[in-house]
Write a structure and sequence with these properties.
The chain is 16% helix and 42% strand. It is an alpha/beta fold. An eight-stranded parallel barrel has the order 19-21-24-27-29-28-25-22.
């Protein structure tokens, strides 16, 4: 009688124990699905796709389903922060499992699992080429790109996204990062065994998500032109122009000139052409409706200045032309509104002419070179301490060109392009 009375209870507890093991097995499987879902959603974030409804949840759902998950739609949280993680991506999976033998005690159980992926910075490129097609970074014959402390990144999907054109060219970098491929003499290389012309600390990363422009939302036309003087004539005393004012159609030659703006700066309308010696006093210089054109044998120097090329009354966006034989020593301010910003081309439109920075060994630029809608030809910048270039495409011209991010914090440039990776944090 006692056995008969207790038998259902014993069977129930035995069944509950057996099903508990099954539920834990399902939970482990679901955890694997949650891990995959969190990683997948994090990679969407790296690619700049951050909408929860149209980007992150579908990516998480697909990854979870491929890993055996059959429950309700994943719950995705971004950005997610807790005591361990900052700016992570959290995914919670939840499914209801009906009771079988244990239904006497539990009609059903809810099995929930959670995973958190964190986005980490793998490297900070000192060259970011934003073009999505064609050759983004082109090292021509008898040229070398020397960036031993940072990487080179290109958003082109081309098989020659980053290219060395001949055996007389070379690239020295921590690594190369591209959505497309890396080529040598017109042929894609094997990233596991690159030719000796590629002196890399680690193997190239090909077919990766695009690298976001860290200044796209900040360096807008409104931000760049805020405070730009639009009226007033500069005071000229001998060879010195001064004031918060506008200089029109400037050609500075045959002598030593000084531009000395009052806060916040000076507008040079119609472009600035230099074939003499010019010293820029610390401040901000807006060059409107024309280029910054440094002709052969010109000299330009500044210890703390930002030069912004933007549209003026004529609606013309100028470019930068630094001729061979020019002596240029420019350094961005290390504090203030334009901290770390050296040569900035307004992204409001695409310039009609490409820019060429060809000063060679006498060209030393410290700070951010931001020309996002144009192609740049570059040669020079020896002994660089902080030079970061963001452009559509760049051609490394004959000679050696140097970039680095090693001294950028001291130079006031704290926002850098980033090659990101993801990892599970929880």
């Amino acid at each position: 009688m006692i056995v008969a009375i207790t038998l259902p209870v014993l069977i129930g507890f035995g069944s509950l124990g057996a099903e508990t093991g099954l539920w834990y097995k399902i939970k482990r499987q679901s955890q694997s699905a949650a891990d995959a879902a969190a990683l997948s959603a994090a990679y969407e974030v790296i690619a700049g796709k951050t909408n929860l409804t149209s980007n992150l949840t579908p990516a998480a759902s697909e990854a979870a389903t491929q890993n055996g998950y059959t429950g309700t739609a994943p719950l995705v949280v971004h950005p997610y922060s807790d005591s361990i993680v900052k700016n992570g991506v959290a995914v919670t999976l939840q499914q209801t499992q009906p009771g079988l033998l244990a239904s006497l005690f539990l009609p059903s159980v809810t099995i929930a699992t959670k995973a958190v992926a964190v986005i980490k910075v793998l490297d900070n490129p000192c060259i970011l080429a934003l073009g999505t097609t064609g050759i983004d970074v082109n090292v021509i014959a008898a040229s070398s790109l020397y960036v031993p402390t940072c990487s080179v990144a290109a958003n082109s999907t081309s098989s020659s996204s980053i290219a060395i054109q001949s055996s007389t060219g070379s690239i020295t970098a921590t690594t190369l990062v591209t959505r497309g491929e890396v080529s040598f003499n017109g042929n894609p290389i094997n990233p596991a065994a690159p030719p000796p012309e590629f002196a890399l600390t680690s193997r190239p990363l090909i077919g990766v998500p695009s690298i976001a422009d860290p200044y796209a939302s900040r360096l807008t036309h409104a931000f760049l032109t805020s405070g730009m003087p639009t009226t007033g004539t500069c005071t000229q005393t001998g060879t010195t122009y001064s004031g918060r004012c506008v200089i029109a159609g400037t050609l500075l030659k045959s002598g030593t000139w000084t531009l000395s703006p009052s806060t916040p700066g000076m507008q040079i309308s119609g472009g600035l052409t230099v074939n003499g010696a010019v010293t820029l006093s610390p401040g901000t210089y807006w060059i409107t409706d024309g280029p910054l054109d440094l002709q052969a044998n010109a000299l330009l120097k500044c210890t703390s200045c930002t030069i912004i090329l933007t549209k003026g009354i004529a609606g013309i966006l100028g470019n930068v032309q630094i001729s061979s034989g020019t002596t240029v020593t420019l350094q961005a301010p290390n504090s203030g509104t334009f901290s770390g910003l050296l040569l900035i081309q307004d992204p409001v439109t695409t310039p009609s002419v490409t820019s060429v920075l060809d000063g060679g060994g006498n060209m030393k630029l410290t700070g951010l070179l931001y020309l996002p809608n144009t192609t740049v030809g570059f040669h020079g910048n020896p002994s660089a301490t902080c030079t970061v270039l963001i452009t559509q495409q760049v051609a490394i011209n004959v000679g050696n060109s140097t970039f680095t991010t090693s001294g950028c914090k001291k130079a006031g440039l704290t926002r850098l392009p980033a090659v990101n990776t993801v990892a599970l944090a929880e």
